[in-house]
Amino acid sequence: MALTKLVIFDVAGTTAKDDGLVVKAFQNAIKSLGVLPDSDEFASMTKYVNETMGQRKIDVFTHLFAGDDVKAEQAHDRFVSEYLELVANGELEEFEGISNFFRTLRSKNVGVAITTGFPREILDLILEKLGWIDLVDVSVAASEVEQGRPAPDMILKSIELFTRETGSDISPDEVIVVGDTESDMESGVRAATSTVVGVTSGSRTRESLEAAGATHVFAFATKVIGLIA
After folding, report:
1. Which of 30, 68, 146, 212 lies in the 20 to 30 Å Cα band around 161?
2. pTM here?
3. pLDDT by residue (tens digit) across 212-222?
4. Complete domains list, the chain, with CATH
């Protein structure tokens, strides 16, 4: 096993407890646009959001409001404001031991990167509220790349930023990608990283994560420590 130089983590469901916050913010957003909570449309939209966890949120809204970019943007803007409020109110918490795990990795000269399907304004608030600003080496939001997951763009940008920061080249077999959804696994595979770790702390099963390309599956992200060479 190659020496690990960088571990790239997802946020909601992987390093932070989601507890339905994404769905809650989404449902509030579509209700504000007139989608009735007891309608088939509301149920089918919610189902799609659950199925596409980990993907860029504007892409999700664009799909749901196909042909109406204005409405998609309005829904996304409302989602962002709703989720920001939830985070600001302290409803998002890290999984037990994550901050200390980040410290352990950095003590071993392993970089820590965060990627997310959220836009930058949400990611910045998450880093602040969870006390991760000084624990994370690089972070990339879906709003900062051309394509969101399952495309590999956020992983590749994380590697690029960390390489620039440290002044050393990193090969894919020196990177571990960690996430809780199929799109996390697919993006790791498409980035050609040799180690793609799925965690069942989100809403997905071992079987679905392995089918999407996970090389390892653990209950929690902190278990990745056993893979650090």
Report:
1. 212
2. 0.94
3. 999 999 999 99
4. 6-18+93-227 (3.40.50.1000), 21-88 (1.10.150)
